[in-house]
Please model this.
Amino acid sequence: MAIIKAEKTPSRPAPIFETSIIGWLQKNLFSSVFNTVLTLFMLFIIYLSLSGIIGWGFIDATFVADNRRQCYDNSLTGACWAGVIDWLTNIFYGRYPRDEIWRIDFGALMLVFWMAPLWMPRVKGKVLIGASVVVFYPFLAGYLFAGGDKGLFMQIMISAAIVALIGNMANLITGLAKNESVVQFLLRVSGKMTAPDKTQRNLLLAILVLAFAAVFWWQTSWSAVGVPWTKWGGLFLTLVISGIGIASALPGGIILALGRRSKLPVVRVLSTSFIEIFRSVPLITVLFMATTMFPLFMPEGFVLNKLVQVIIAVVLFNACYMAETVRAGLQAIPKGQFEGAHTIGLGYWGTMGLVIMPQALKHMIPNIVGSFIGLLKDTTLVSIIGLFDILGMLRSISKDVPWLGLHKEPLIFGAMLFFILCFSMSKYSRHLETKLSAGNKH
Amino acid sequence: MSTELKQGQLASAASTEVMIEINDMNKWYGAFHVLKDINLTVHKGERIVICGPSGSGKSTLIRCINALEEHQEGDIIVDGIVLGKNLKNLDHIRTEVGMVFQNFNLFPHLTILENLTLGPIWVRKMGKTEAGENAMKYLERVKIPEQADKYPGQLSGGQQQRVAIARSLCMSPKIMLFDEPTSALDPEMIKEVLDVMVELADTGMTMIVVTHEMGFAKTIADEVIFMDEGDIVEQNNPIEFFDNPQHERTQLFLSQIL
Model:
């Protein structure tokens, strides 16, 4: 018998208990007597712990006091946040000279300004901006933080960095105002827009050289007071170490991962053994080796400061972990993508840079951010080898005479700080994932 | 068969100029002998269809021509260049030989237009605007210019395969290789891809097509090659090949698929 449907069945709204809150509650929390009892029991536990935390941390807590004695006088059962507040500057900046702290803030502000255009859709030349941050910013910030004598190399790098920053800001303005890059703007103003001819290219080059010369001349007129690295500390030091670690672990990891997949045996064996050696050793061991054994291999009289050694160790260690993450991402790319790229004539670097890596990195974002979060937290290990990073500073509070024995509050404060940093990184990675997958449905 | 085109519809465009020459070529996968003593000459403008059962080495053969696979013995000479270990030669070959795959192999992270302009911009060093105009020209030729700003994942299989053809054409190749271009497509979409290929054949492009679409083979082929277990078993013009197959293996194959 033939069945022929005469007209379409209209769609009806879903049953009310599928969409309302009451329906959700009924389905998820109170679906049976046993589940109802469990729900109520859990609510009671949540109430107990929350009231305890709020009572200790806020209601009974002391926020203003000169020493721990006064905290106790105020309340025996509450937290003594006064100690943490008293030490806030130390927690953030370590023992950095108080008159020079503005340099750290200024450096951080510069980074914000430098990187902010990366998130603005109208701004052009993002790859260049990103590269300039990685290449030039460390020198500028490094000198700002450390100060002292500028060698010729540092003078050149600082001048280049300042030119890059100015160019970046000009690019930001032309991007926001005219939706074009600063180069496009200059070309348009000076004549032909497409196909820049030789004079125009020379003009651009001349502007660049002039700017560099001017900045170079200007920077000889000032210098910053030297601050030895032993004075660096607190959150500042943690962010310096992990920031350098994060910025160099990814490129390092990509190079190592490509090396491990290389067809050249020497490159492959070297990369593989490097990765495996660093991955089979705990970070703390690598740190100890870097600070105690590394100097033994160096020629006599060659002194590298401990901070640099630590940073090198952190970078190498994390590059190896990143290499494995990148390798996993590369393996997720189907062979057809390599073949597709080869048939349009792309060579090895073109294939990797234009076709494979952009796709692989997208798959890797959760893992990469996971590594970054791990790196940020692992950095606290440097407090064991005698650097006063944030953890070192937090623990010093309990040894400070007025706050003797104050352990709990600083560590809880530190935990909250790390949570904020790590959770926002994790949130941002989720945001990035949805954003990237929205533009590109498979 | 999905194409209703009659055999011999397209006039042969083959000239005497040799485009591809394969002499006594052998290839092994490990210990497995996939291609055995292959000899083949393809002239400029000639259209060759390769068919045969799966595992007979037809895909491997055209992948060797594109240097996607290495052969161990014999010579492959493409456009006067001997394929060997020389990497510079390989890059040159790949820019002159376009290839269309069964699974399209479009780049999912790039828009259709970016897929088409990637090669011209980075390999041919073409300007961005010029490459874009060139790409649009080919998108119009495969009849989907309106999809230029979409991503491959948003297109149907047939559309993706037409984009893949356009992507290869953007490099203005001298030879086009097709590796079972319609095998991964829904039946409804096979025709739109074959139509594009017939049009391409009409322009005098040198083509080697691995396919099971026999109607298509009759329409465009100057020569049909039948392969089995790594051998070229029979090679003939399409009329003879289909109406009067000589080898018993060919007869069996044709009786099963027609």
In short: Chain B has nine helices and ten strands. Residues 113 and 134 of chain B are 10 Å apart (CA to CA). The radius of gyration of chain B is 18 Å. Chain B touches chain A at residues 66, 68, 91, 94-95, 97-99, 101, 103, 105-109, 118-119, 122-124, 127, 129, 151, 153-154, 167-168, 170-171 (CB under 8 Å).
